[in-house]
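Amino Acid Chain and Its Fold in Token Form
===========================================
What this section holds: a protein sequence and its matching fold, both as plain text.
Structure line: whole-number tokens from a learned vocabulary of local backbone shapes, matched to residues.
Purpose: to set a sequence beside its fold so the mapping can be learned.
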Amino acid sequence: MSGFSVRKFYDELADDYHLMFRDWDASMAYQADVLGGLVRTSLGAGPHTVLDCSCGIGTQAIGLALAGHQVVGSDLSPVAAARAAAEASVRGRRLPTAAADMRQLPFRKASFGVVLCADNSLPHLLSGQDVRAALRGMRRVLRDDGLLLITVRAYDESRRTRPTGTPPQVSETCDGRVVTFQLWHWHEDGERYDLEHFQLTPAENTWRVRVRRSTYWALTSPQLTEFVTEAGFTDITWHGPAAGGYYQPVLTARRAPAARSRSADPG
């Protein structure tokens, strides 16, 4: 996907990912409430069968499972996926997980009512070919009229301003304060950037510094809308943070039945 290994990035981050949240369980509940509300609006109360195809350590998947949905998680990082299953179990929920590339989802056709790809995961795919492969796979595992949810950074603004990083975020933990921030290094094409993720944790009167690196494609909303349409989805809607209440822009779309989109579904 990039010059940096995406799997390595998340394998190394898996044990510490929760430290980016001031209160991880509260964030699970908040995100499940907002995303679950979008699911209810489109599909009704449920419960629904959900695939979180970039589940990470389970922030969205566990929250949705706690809300009563039947959730399966998959992630490129086997370390993160294993932690998601373990964290769900600690909270009294079963969350089956698999280590899987979103471009090659190992699930049967029409297995889910909802497919979720959250936390700016899709932009790890750096070419149109890879984005198309992932979206076609998500469509394949959705039932007719099933719901796709994708959350990404607000890249329309970032492409104009080319930020060089993010402000430091300080979280309180049982072991002291944790400081997290990012540096962004834009490529010459103005669309892709290398990210350095810094995490500072207390260590015997000094700071332990961890740096992880990955690359992203800053897909604008028109670009992603075009890819999603091409993959055979309809009723595409963007929900901005101000209106939708989520911390990132959310795209929702419905899987067009085969009769309406034969060319997008090879089988």
